[in-house]
Amino acid sequence: MQDVLKEAGLSAGAVYRYFPGKEDIIAAITEETFATIRGAFEEAGRPSPPPTPDVLLSRILARVLGERLYGLERRTFAALAVQLWSETLRDARLAAQLDEGYATLRGVRAELVEAYRRAGILSEGVVADHVARTMFATAQGFIVQEALFGDVRPDVPENGLRGLMSMGPQKAS
Q: What gap in Å lies between CA 73 and CA 146, rounded to an integer?
């Protein structure tokens, strides 16, 4: 808490007026972070038809990592997200908050998948939740890469996913 107080330039009394403890600060940061990520997915999926997953994830990562949430540099923000995820492993309240945010994001992504179906660019046989979870995992993976290596550019997931999506079925040998 002393580090938080020093960085914020506030006294303990000022911070504890709004947050009873460290966990409450983390919960507030988690809530705001999810709101940013959810907003990025909602915004990226508004066009009709929505952009394909390669373009969509590129736009989302550009927005989330370029948002400068809390005034943080993108690599620092990505590291904060990874730390928040790890905090949920030891704090039941944060885990519940993460579960709720994840469910909301999966719902938003499932809506995108349905929009792909309506546009005729995704077949009916594909399970919407599977696509939603894969998109989420891909975004998380690039956030972790940014936290660890700091070299994520929006064109990387866009080009990588486009390459993966262009693969045809494997021929039997």
A: 11
Q: For residue range 84-142, list pLDDT tens digits in order.
A: 888 888 888 888 988 888 888 777 777 788 888 888 888 888 888 888 888 888 888 99
Q: Is residue 115 within 8 Å of 50, Cβ to Cβ?
A: yes
Specify the pTM. 0.78
Tokens describing residue 85: 């995820």
Write the single-letter amino acid at 147. Answer: A
Give the whole-angstrom CA distance, residue 85 versus residue 83.
5
Structure token pair of residue 150: 């700091």
Q: Is the dihedral of CA 97, 100, 103, 107 positive or negative?
A: negative
Cβ atoms of 79 and 87 within 8 Å: the answer is no
In angstroms, the CA 93 to CA 88 distance is 8
- pLDDT tens-digit map of 64-86: 787 666 667 888 888 888 888 88
DSSP state of 89: T
